[in-house]
Amino acid sequence: MRLLTFNALIKGDVRVRLGVLGGILRESDFDIVCLQEVMYRAHADLVRREFPHSACAGMVVLKGGLLLLSRRPIERWRFVRYPMSGPMRTEFLMRKGALIAEIGDLVVVNTHLSANRDDDWSPTNRYTLVERAELDVLAGILADIDQSRPLVVAGDLNLPRTASVLADFRTAAGLTDVLAGDARPTYRPTPRWPEPPALDHLLVRGGITARADLVFQDEMALPDGRRVHLSDHYGIAADI
């Protein structure tokens, strides 16, 4: 089974970029696609046409900006919203949370945690405390799922791989980081942030083995001839 997780970026030529992404996905061999920052149901239609099954919550605005696509039947799915805590911010409008889908024996959790606007992932930072509270909710969700059942947690966790709060969560939930030891960033480097960390993750348990690599690192051609990156993040593609 082949899986992709990708933060599709909420701003800047959104419909055009999603149209290009949709074309890539139609020609791809991905069985399951977890997307973040797809904010509107109309935008979801740009990428899911060749996938017979999908899950997302919200009539117009997608809750959490989360969309899950599958070429295999989705038996059940649900969205769980994270608590709104910490400093007031426009991010609250996204209603961040977790989208949990059951695809055969496999459970896939697509999620997007709150951003750390201080770029400080120390345990006492105000945004790290927000992320810890969100991970506590996610840990509770995972605790209710049979530990032996194959499970994947994918998405933009907005935490570096080495952050202690993320390490504590992985240990408590019995999760393995598929890209453990990989020092490459998943947020695209910029002059303003030349050495960003890996904020996107693929975590597994329940006997899953996986190989993963980064994708969408290069610029893509738009229909008008411009070349742009599909997002400010790279994607993670995995063979499970």
TrEMBL record:
<dbReference type="Pfam" id="PF03372">
    <property type="entry name" value="Exo_endo_phos"/>
</dbReference>
<protein>
    <recommendedName>
        <fullName>Endonuclease/exonuclease/phosphatase domain-containing protein</fullName>
    </recommendedName>
</protein>
<dbReference type="InterPro" id="IPR036691">
    <property type="entry name" value="Endo/exonu/phosph_ase_sf"/>
</dbReference>
<dbReference type="InterPro" id="IPR005135">
    <property type="entry name" value="Endo/exonuclease/phosphatase"/>
</dbReference>
<feature type="domain" description="Endonuclease/exonuclease/phosphatase">
    <location>
        <begin position="21"/>
        <end position="233"/>
    </location>
</feature>
<dbReference type="InterPro" id="IPR038772">
    <property type="entry name" value="Sph/SMPD2-like"/>
</dbReference>
